[in-house]
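In the previous chapter we treated chains in isolation. Here, by contrast, the input contains two separate entities that must be folded as one system, with a combined length of 744 residues.
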Amino acid sequence: MIFSIDRESLVDALISASRALSNKTPMPILTGVKLDVDYDKVTITTSNSDISMQVVISNSHLKVEKTGSHVIPGRFFIEIAKKIKAETVEITVVDDNLINIKAGQSDFTLNGMEKELYPEITFNTLNNPIILKDEELRSIIYQTNFATSVLENRPILTGVLFDINGHKLRAVATDSYRLSQKEIELNISNDLKQIVIPHRTLEELSRLLTSNEKIEMFIADNKVIFKHKNVMFQSRLLEGRFPETNKLIPTEFPVEISFNKNELIGAIERASLLYQGGKDNIVKLQLKDDGNAIITSHSSEIGKVIEEITPTHIECNGEFIIAFSAKYVMESLRVFESSDITMFFTGVVKPFIIKGELDEGMLQLVLPVRVE
Amino acid sequence: MIFSIDRESLVDALISASRALSNKTPMPILTGVKLDVDYDKVTITTSNSDISMQVVISNSHLKVEKTGSHVIPGRFFIEIAKKIKAETVEITVVDDNLINIKAGQSDFTLNGMEKELYPEITFNTLNNPIILKDEELRSIIYQTNFATSVLENRPILTGVLFDINGHKLRAVATDSYRLSQKEIELNISNDLKQIVIPHRTLEELSRLLTSNEKIEMFIADNKVIFKHKNVMFQSRLLEGRFPETNKLIPTEFPVEISFNKNELIGAIERASLLYQGGKDNIVKLQLKDDGNAIITSHSSEIGKVIEEITPTHIECNGEFIIAFSAKYVMESLRVFESSDITMFFTGVVKPFIIKGELDEGMLQLVLPVRVE
């Protein structure tokens, strides 16, 4: 294996591929980056137990003198590529498995890893991908992934459901105390498919979606493959049955209150200041006779807060008071693009939902806590 | 205690004072902020076991209706002041020791702490302070404090020696493997004084020195007080005898090599990449026949690096090779303002020193390691 490449392409490719690199792993070979050098392209492969990636470099700077495949210690290779100062990097394998990296005044020689131990990883893209725009998929992830469960007792809830049906894609995440749902229209009709993608996969995937390109999504039996420019990104799926969440979402709302989103976030944030680490920071929302609302919290140990806030719109007969987790509601509010949001209430112990005028297809649901 | 003040002054004062606030402490009262309200000023006091601070607010926005002293839970008070949205903050003590804080739409009531438990803290400023410019003291701290010891077995080395003698101030830090020394001229002659200021004190003090003001330094028996604008900053001193470091510094140098500082930092940084957490990253510097230098490192497990670098000036007869800790030398180099630095060598097992043309009065010393 002998080739040279511009440093910039190599660094970009390695930074992308590092998202799937293992740090600690029961398979030490996976701490390596696999290089497959052909005459017209270099393919970089990385994998951990959940995610695998393949990044292809193919440009006019690539000069291949000798093809070959080798596995290079990942962390060192990436740090070297980032830190060297030169336009061009020459990589040469000497003495069977010593990887020599020359760039400018720098001359590194790394012990190669045992390439025979690197597992066979296939990236089978089938026909008929689901096609999404970068920013569409980035929004879906941003607006749902935060609501997944962090507890491992119901593993299926640690991922986001992607429910594809005809022209519709519905993404749902819930930890059973709150739920986030986003629906978008697809340009092309697709067969019915339901998959649950792990939280971590979506987090890493989201970091790749920084351009205004398109991304193709291929669904196989137990995995999903995303194809994005020169990158293939593959993840395992969560197994099990995602709960039927549609029936949890109320449809009749005797009380509706609208707020300026940022004012509401500020008031809830201040009302939840007097809480000590570990305890849930519960606040109360109450409508007053004068048409104003107050958000309050109380801790006998520390003190109390009363935040007054003027709703932009109210529909309500009589008194209304409800208590909820400040953290859950603030996290929900922050993913809205609308500056004005509406909270829809069914009753003080029933889940309430939040919608925003400019956030078509998005719904946030939070379970209240009992008012003492 | 009843008064109102502009939020900005209150927040600025609290942020300054928070540098001495205790988080955990054997004296829980020290997690509180003490407020002493007079008709013309509000004094904020904070303290932990090492540092005490007093910040005075006195401006035309201050309106005092009733004087008094109270201790308010520090962390909550500071968070509230930061997060409230209003120009003016009204603070009123109700029911003996409930602290009510009103600002805009926000209404907080905090349980006050037992003010009788707050210790008496005196800030005695004597005559004849040593007067320094903000940026002078900031440089001294930046250029020496990093070289203090982190080990507690010789407590005196965890601080920086300030050695004042006539018109000279010499600051020295050493962990016994490297040493940093900075000398400046004082405008006014001072009596001989030697004090050792703890690392943490200097770190916090440095954060206050963001303006172009003057700072006054008062030295008492076992403490030092800094007076800076509306802030008094007091710290305990380290007890014991700081080692006589002058005799450690060589004066004859058969070998001198000058480098562009940033090129040298880059080469050492890259040469030290192939090291695994925990081990010391030792690199070798060697002069070659062709007038170039190489910096190398080698790990049988991972691989090796050769970095070539062209000195800007050499004085040397014959061969020269020396090995040192990459971390120590890089940390020393980073505090120089000069773009060109010179390394002065006495021998391969003797300490070497580094100086920079534009860094008058500064000297960095590093102990080499034996070349294998």
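Residues 249-366 of chain A form a domain with the Proliferating Cell Nuclear Antigen fold (CATH 3.70.10.10). Chain A is about 15% helix and 45% strand. Compare these points with the single-chain example from earlier in the chapter.
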